[in-house]
Write a structure and sequence with these properties.
Elements (H helix, E strand, L loop, with lengths): L2 E7 L7 H15 L2 E6 L13 E4 L1 H4 L21 E4 L5 E4 L2 H10 L4 E6 L1 H12 L4 E5 L15 H22 L1 E7 L6 H10 L3 E3 L7 H9 L9 E6 L11 E3 L8 E3 L2 H11 L5 E6 L11 H19 L5 E6 L2 E6 H4 L11 H8 L7
Parallel strand pairs: 1-2, 1-6, 6-7, 7-14, 8-10, 8-13, 9-10
Antiparallel strand pairs: 2-3, 4-5, 11-12, 14-15
Helix pairs in contact: 1-9, 5-6, 6-11
Amino acid sequence: MKKRILILTGGGDCPGLNAVIRAVVKSAENAGDWEVIGSIEAYNGLLTSPFQVVSLNELAVAGIHFRGGTIIGTTNKGDPFGFPVKQADGSVKTVDRSQEVMTALKQLNVQAVISIGGDGSQKISQQFFEMGMPVIGVPKTIDNDLSATQMTFGFQTAVQIATEAVDKLVTTAASHNRVMILEVMGREAGWIALHAALGGGAEVCLIPEIPYDIDIVTERINERYHAGKGFANVIIAEGAKPKGGSIVGKESGEAGYGHVRLGGIGYQLAEELKANGCQGDIRVTVLGHLQRGGVPIAFDRVLATQFGVRAFQLAQESKFGRMVALVDGKISDVTLKEATAAYNYVHPDDFRLKSARAMGISLGD
């Protein structure tokens, strides 16, 4: 009898998820003694009756490496350790259904679980590993905020989309003598904003790690204007905040969603600039979920494929409780504890940050 791998994708969607799935399936089929099934919408597929799982063979994954999203679905509201359950009165209560997941794996005769997800998903993986689950993590996030890996797949595609948006905004800013503010994703990390600013040639880049001084930002923009003529492009990360201020966001109100829903800092910045005497006519673009959708670029397909292959190798070697990682430019792996120990912020000594300063990009400080 063939050994069985269960694969799942959790958290937000991300360009490259399908490339990982394909790599695991093709590696398993070529090995000959493994088969792969997929759980629909992360662990949710194991918490329904009957189970919502699908067989994943070479035919099922043919040609999916260039498709965005995930063919087995995903969710960021299905933590089995705090699963949202609607009560008779309409309220929602979170319950621990982790043991149901462990029972389901036995019923499905699963010898290895490959969980593809970001920081939250891998923390869940660690909890399950401590319960005895034979789990392997694959890092996924457009935010690039897992410190145990040099890069996560999906990040470079998000950067490419953001940079292309800057390219387009430059021309309309120049045509109308405007200040164009582009708000990008990234949560508490400024990696997408910083890379897009370097790639797109922005005049100002505001990131969560450096609270901005509105006077400094205004002065930098006004320098671009002479006799009412000029333009400027500003990139701001969704988690950025002014000195002495706080992030812009609100509770989602969605059962099981554990994050504050960020967004709106671009519009707040516009109002701050107007009140502070900014010379230019200001427009705001919020890039939003465009950054996480669509076709992954080649870099992310290659990285995701390598991660998928390594994840299968770890399953073959029974090396559980580990996450695939890019370390010193090589595909490696680390413990799940290491993987989730620290958030990957932009460090003050990072050369990309120093490069931005050297290029004259204002960071608002």
